From TrEMBL:
Residues 1-29 form the signal peptide. This is LysM domain-containing protein. Keywords: Signal. Residues 49-61 have a biased composition (Basic residues). Belongs to the transglycosylase Slt family. Residues 32-70 are annotated as: Disordered. It holds the Pfam family SLT. InterPro entries: LysM (IPR018392), LysM_dom_sf (IPR036779), Lysozyme-like_dom_sf (IPR023346), Transglycosylase_SLT_dom_1 (IPR008258). The keyword Hydrolase does not apply. The keyword Signal applies. Residues 246-290 form the LysM domain.
Amino acid sequence: MEKMLSIALSVAMVIAVAIVVAPSSRAHASAQQAAQSYTPQKAGNALKSRSRSVKKRRVARRTGGGCQTLSGSTLEQKASAYGQPIHNAARQHGVSQDLIKAVITIESCFKSKARGTSGEKGLMQLMPGTARRFNVNDGYNAWQNINGGARYLGVLLAHYDGNTRRAIAAYNAGEGNVRKTGGIPNPAYVGKVMQAYGKFSGTQDQAATFKKQVVRPLQVEPASSSKVLPWADLHTVKAASPAAAGHYTVRAGDTVYQVMRVTGVAVPELIRLNQLPAPHGIKVGQVLRLR
């Protein structure tokens, strides 16, 4: 009996030692394998990867970072979630879809629940006063927010005679802080919006950055011009010398800005001659006075 007990005790001790030693052996083997696989080339690659990551962060800080630095395809993908309200607001208020998308890019990066430190809400970060001005009851509702923001952009474009950069500056800084001539107070903000606008509209060479402190008023060119204007996503309406006739008949897709481009009559003059109430919408078949 004592012999059997001694044998059982010996077996138990062997098992215990095996349990203790086995993990240690496996850990040692793993460590040895890792050490063998570690080479100077791998170390160099890891260092280069970290260096590239640091450089990207530095570039992002230097260029302002932000949503506008994303690729055009990524931005389009983000915007696609709000395609219908953007399309509707653009047509209703005569503002380029690409411009609306660009402002949303900088204001919220397409986050419908975004909230600013001063009470700004939603995709286009409408201030409480702006929301009340354009009858936006729910700033987090994408349809209401985009409609209110696009309507405000339309008003600003009319106020600044179609000058997109000044309208963008006023959207951010307020109409009272942006004059029709001279410098603007927020060129960095305008540059970011124009960078995003360039990616949406495919005109990055013309609108990638905005570094000048002074903005020249927009020069109206004939309809045949190849220059891309902010409302370039709206079709060009062909008219036979409407200015000479003294009137213009509105066609499908027209806005006051499109009429200005075709006729050469400035937006404020069109509004005054035809007594167009804000937000200055026009209807198909409507006959506009040009003088």
